[in-house]
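Hello Y.,

Per our agreement to keep a running log of every chain we model this quarter, I'm adding this entry. I've kept the format consistent with earlier entries: sequence first, then predicted structure.
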Amino acid sequence: MSRETGRTVKAVQTTLDIVEYLRENEGGKITDIADDLHRSKGTVHSHLATLLKNEYVVKDGEAYRLSLRYMDFGQFVQERLGIYDVVQDELDDLAAETGELAQFATEEHGRAVYIYKAHGEKAVQTASTVGKRENLHCISLGKAMLAHMPRSQVEEIIDRHGLPAYTAATITDHEKLFADLERIREQGYAVDNEEKIEGLRCIAAPVKGTDGGVLGAVSISGPSSRMDGKRFEEELPNNVKRSANVIEINAKFS
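Predicted structure for the entry above:
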């Protein structure tokens, strides 16, 4: 992860704020966007007109929404990952085998980014979606990746994003987090014991590249009522470690 600092362009930031607003609100009218983003209606209109001309938004009556052009960007980024097809096949198998929710994420700008999800027959529905970003310290996918990063990089991520609490179980202390990361390295997998969402447990294993860096992580998520006992302590950890290993092997030849 690299973080460059320097001057930013206010107009570009405004455009990005508008794009993110349209994504989060599934569209919007000029007046609403201007009020919520604390920009003038004239400014918002000018930015939307530019986006519309370049086909990054479409207009329905008085409302604007994101265009399908973003699908092209998403496909491009997936292909750039290099192992997307391998991840897709392996997670589909993992979800079918366990009956739970299988997910793959990678790290970007100090956050976990969901790349693919597969639903088993008993899979729970969660708020995570492909492309969504999450803090690393509170989910098994994130901790599995943090455990195999240099300490200096982990500290940089903490400085940037903090250790916010989501539940009573979230790790918010630096030294407790580093102790947990050491355990994860020793056992080969990470656990989210209701640290992000109460009632939900997750297990993840890192996917490492040939250079020793971390490509991402694979996880299984399910309700605490099913994620317990020998299944939680042995069976599912073995499942995610095996899937991570399959992806690692295939990544060498992709």
